[in-house]
What we know:
By secondary structure, this protein is of the alpha+beta class.
Amino acid sequence: MLHLSFWLAYFTYSIYDLQAYLGLIKGAGYISLRLIFLLLASYLHYFLVLPIWLTEKKIWKYIGLVTLLTIGIVSLRIFAENMILPHIVKNEAYYQTIKLSRIISTCWDTMVFMMFTGMIRFTVDRFDFESRQKQLENEKLVAELNYLKAQINPHFLFNTLHNLNYLVYAGSAKATEVIIKLSNIMRYMIYEANKTEVPLKHEVNYLYDYIHLESIRLSQVLNLTFEKEGDIDNVNIAPLTLITLLENAFKHGIRDTEQDCWIKLKLKIEKGVIYYEVANRILASDPTRQASGFGLENLRRRLELGYPNRHSLQITKQNEVYTVQLQLR
């Protein structure tokens, strides 16, 4: 479409420019003869010669073929003009002789159009290349993001299945409850986690199911508060974004052998920004503390991919309290 528009514009303007001198019919004939050789030169170069430079990278072969193509087209054009144009342009000695100035002018005219259409080819190829590169980059990022999501919760699932096995063996009524909550979690991870975004309320329900399952395995009452503020029904979020911080809080802040363990969750929606805070008491002795960095590094990478330049993650340790604050824009 771009090529057709250019040649139509050139043809129309040229006829408009010459009709006062030659008339409409003769002007059209004059321009048509010139246009035939410009089209021939431009698209022989476009389809046959230019790819030698763009794909094969053989610059000297390309220059040699451009030279031969130019000589051939210019020779044919001058011959055709000498045969036809004297009948159109009366008393025009220019088209009855062959001079160096005419040869140079015709070569320049031919090469300008070859270069112009060549620039179109170069530009289109460049955009196509960048588009393919962008597509490959996006596919790579999606694959990496899916890989990071797949690393979430394996230990939790194994522990839950182990607890479920114990509850079933003991004949506990909680076994059915565990199966339902675990089913909800698995459904969310399988059907929702592959999406780019999910409703925030679905993510919150996922957190509640996780909290419920974790509380079942504890022998003491779970001291956990979850404060919510703002409209969570009309906000979306990348799936499995909030769970990592809650997992870390359970892993490093709750233990049956410790007293006064607690977790505080705060979720606030304000002007399209999600504020999420998780705090827990720092246990006196935490044998898993040295291995706690993987989950946060996983989260940081997923935030870089899903919320580039649109997130903030701050971690503070003060007065035996571990606090993580996350903002998503």
